[in-house]
Each structure stands twice: as structure tokens, then as C-alpha cells.
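stage 2 :: seqdesign
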């Protein structure tokens, strides 16, 4: 074996690694300095919002610390699929259930979260782990997000998509989910909602004559591996615009940075 050549290769590899880690450190340091500027003590974000006619009814309770969590994409077993009642189900790629109900399930006219309770409890594996995200009446779809520690995971593969017909009956659904959630040993200080709002305001992402309808704390993907993902605490800020439409913003609750989450990423492989 050519030890000199091997030593040279190791030196090059570790040099590249050092450069990468240093770049990452500088990026995080710069982000922290930007965050310090955004949360200067003389800034009153609520007054700024009021001046721009951006209404906010109330802020959520403060959360001082929250940690990262990881989870593995669940591989469904034949026994689990065979246990599903009143439906014909198949699994693709081992991780995605495609199911058609033998007898459509009637929903209430409101088509809100409570109307799906029977379906989640009786027809979906671990249905109590899902929370309603949005309903698209035109497409006949309702989208649910999986929860971890009772907090939703925004825009991941752990999506439950329910399809209903014009008679407001559930006819089929697709499901993926994560399991084996683990918390990291260390918790992190959480950016508070006022700081998250100030981040959006400073970047001119909040429009005048709008209403901040909800501020919720959940998780979003920080690192994605083949089967395992690491999730970071994330603020979700929903804003109702003057025309009745909604904007959704996501902010990493540890670093204070705006996250660009795309719905297409959530639905990848589901069409």
C-alpha cells in the first residue's frame, strides 16, 4: 500500500471538511448577528403592525425551550394492511398506503376537523396522530399532517390525503407516516413569536390591511436522509389577506430564519 498517497488523500479530505465546517460556522454566526439586530430592545413589533393596519388578536404562550427530534419513515406490514376495515388497500414502496373504501363514508356538511373523527379513528392506522391542515373543496381533498409531541410536522412525507366525492363522502385516501421518534439530548432556546413576526416585518413579507390569524409551533425537516429525518422546531404564521386569501410563513424557531417550505415537496410521489 502507498502510505504517502493515502496520507495525502486523508489530508485533502480533512481540509475540505474543515473548510465546510468553518463556512457553516460563519453562516450560523452571521445569522445570529442578524437575529440580534431584529430583536433590539427598542423594537415594539405590535406597534409597527398596528401602524401598518396588520391586526393580531393575541400571541401564543411562550415556549422557552424545545429540542430537535428524529423519525423513520414507517414500513407498513401485511398484517397492518389486512386489519383495515371496509377498504381495499395496497402498499407501494413499502411506505405508502393507497386505499379505497368499499362503502363511502358520509361527512357532515361542515367538512371541518370534527367531521373526520370517525374516519380517523376507525379507518386509518394511527389516525389519532394526524391533524387537519386544509380542505380543498374544488379538488375534493382534505390534507392532514402527522403530529409529534402533539405538534404538527409541516410539509413532510408523513401526509394523509383524503379524497371525497360531490356527495361529501370519503371514497379513498393515501397515507405515509413516521415512527420511532427520538428526542435529541439537548434542548434549544426558542425564538419567541414577537421575534418571528419582526423577522417577517423587517423583510416586508407582511402585507398591510391583513390579519395574523394564527401562530403555532410545530416541526419541519432540518436534515433528510434516506429513511430518517431530523425535525427542527418551527413557527407557522398564518396571515389572512384583505382579499380573503391566506399566506403561510414558516420560521426556524431555533435560528430565527425564514424557511421556504413548498407544498410540492409535501406531495412528492403522491400523484
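stage 2 :: out
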Amino acid at each position: 500500500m502507498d502510505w504517502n498517497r493515502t496520507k495525502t488523500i486523508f489530508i485533502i479530505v480533512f481540509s475540505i471538511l474543515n473548510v465546510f465546517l468553518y463556512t457553516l460556522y460563519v453562516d450560523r454566526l452571521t445569522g445570529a448577528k442578524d437575529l440580534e439586530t431584529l430583536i433590539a430592545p427598542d423594537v415594539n413589533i405590535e406597534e409597527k403592525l398596528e401602524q401598518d393596519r396588520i391586526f393580531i388578536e393575541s400571541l401564543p404562550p411562550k415556549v422557552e425551550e424545545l429540542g430537535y427530534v428524529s423519525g423513520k419513515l414507517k414500513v407498513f406490514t401485511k398484517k397492518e394492511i389486512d386489519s383495515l376495515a371496509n377498504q381495499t388497500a395496497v402498499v407501494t414502496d413499502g411506505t405508502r398506503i393507497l386505499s379505497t373504501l368499499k362503502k363511502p363514508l358520509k361527512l357532515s356538511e361542515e367538512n371541518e376537523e370534527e367531521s373526520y373523527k370517525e374516519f380517523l379513528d376507525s379507518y386509518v392506522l394511527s389516525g389519532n396522530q394526524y391533524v387537519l391542515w386544509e380542505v380543498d373543496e374544488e379538488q375534493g381533498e382534505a390534507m392532514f399532517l402527522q403530529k409529534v409531541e402533539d405538534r404538527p410536522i409541516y410539509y413532510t412525507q408523513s401526509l394523509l390525503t383524503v379524497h371525497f366525492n360531490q356527495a361529501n363522502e370519503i371514497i379513498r385516501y393515501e397515507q405515509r407516516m413516521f415512527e420511532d421518534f427520538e428526542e435529541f439530548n439537548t434542548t434549544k432556546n426558542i425564538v419567541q413569536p414577537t421575534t418571528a413576526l419582526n423577522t417577517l416585518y423587517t423583510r416586508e413579507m407582511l402585507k398591510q390591511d391583513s390579519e395574523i390569524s394564527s401562530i403555532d409551533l410545530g416541526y419541519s425537516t432540518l436534515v433528510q436522509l434516506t429513511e430518517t429525518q431530523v425535525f427542527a422546531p418551527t413557527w407557522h404564521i398564518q396571515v389572512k389577506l384583505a382579499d380573503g386569501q391566506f399566506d403561510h410563513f414558516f420560521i426556524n424557531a431555533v435560528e430565527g430564519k425564514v424557511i421556504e417550505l413548498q407544498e410540492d415537496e409535501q406531495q412528492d410521489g403522491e400523484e
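stage 3 :: structure notes
- The first strand starts at residue 54 and ends at 56.
- Confidence is low (pLDDT under 50) at residues 7-42, 264-271.
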